[in-house]
Amino acid sequence: MKKRHHNRIQRYSAPERINHWIVAFCFVLAALSGLGFFFPSFNWLMHVLGTPQLARILHPFVGVIMFVAFLLMFFRYWKYNFVDREDVIWAKNIHKVIQNEEVGDIGRYNLGQKCVFWAAIASLVLLLASGVVIWRPYFAGAFPVPVIRLALLVHSVAAVGLIIVIMVHVYAALWVKGSITAMVEGWVTTAWAKEHHPRWYRAVRARQTIKQEKRP
Predict the structure, then answer these.
(1) 59 is catalytic
(2) What pTM was computed for the model?
(3) CATH for 10-209, among 1.20.950.20, 3.30.1380.10, 3.40.30.10, 1.10.3720.10?
(4) For 79-89, what is each residue's pLDDT tens digit?
(5) Which of 22, 49, 128, 176 could form a disulfide with 55 if both were Cys (CB 3.0 to 4.6 A apart)?
(6) 12 Cα distance to chain centroid
(7) Which tens digits make up the pLDDT trace of 196-208?
């Protein structure tokens, strides 16, 4: 059993995983109810939040909770999501990546994950800003009709953009075996870390070595 745990590395702590799944749960509720508002043929999706009337009340509150929860993730991970030289190598060898071959000395996240991260925060900022403008009965009355119409357009486009981004995120997580385990149980194998995120693996091992050396 000890040997088995020795071959594992913690990728996400319990608070990080809870934070992630709160965002995911809110996204599902907001996306489904939002599609129900947008497409008459999807009106039945509003029942995910109860009745259509209740959905109109709860949808913006769910959206705000999602934004705040993702903001916590943003402050946790932004420093790992800047594009570097290895990401350029990754992008140039995207044909190998598509064939499930890892390239480059990747840190905690690869270029694809970084793009998802920045696209998600950009979409959420647009959704929050536009959502406040169209939020009845609290804020919409303070804005002229042309601004509300523009906000509705921005909100719709940003929502579709976020849905696409999350679909890519989910597909990638299912495609790379071990990714789901990392976010559900918090750990990955050392082999997985070495293969997919070698620079991150070395950094984790270096921190572990320093901690062991400091122990009396």
Answers:
(1) no
(2) 0.90
(3) 1.20.950.20
(4) 999 999 999 99
(5) 49
(6) 14
(7) 999 999 999 998 8
Q: Which pair of tokens denotes residue 178?
A: 């071990």
Concatenating the DSSP letter of every residue in the chain gives: -HHHHHTEEE-S-HHHHHHHHHHHHHHHHHHHHHHHHH-GGGGGGGGGGSSHHHHHHHHHHHHHHHHHHHHHHHHHHGGG-S--HHHHHHHHTHHHHHTT---S---SS-HHHHHHHHHHHHHHHHHHHHHHHT-TTTTGGGS-HHHHHHHHHHHHHHHHHHHHHHHHHHHHHHHSTTHHHHHHTSEEEHHHHHHH-HHHHHHHHHHHHHHHHH--
Residues in the chain: 216
Catalytically annotated residue among 155, 169, 196, 197: 169
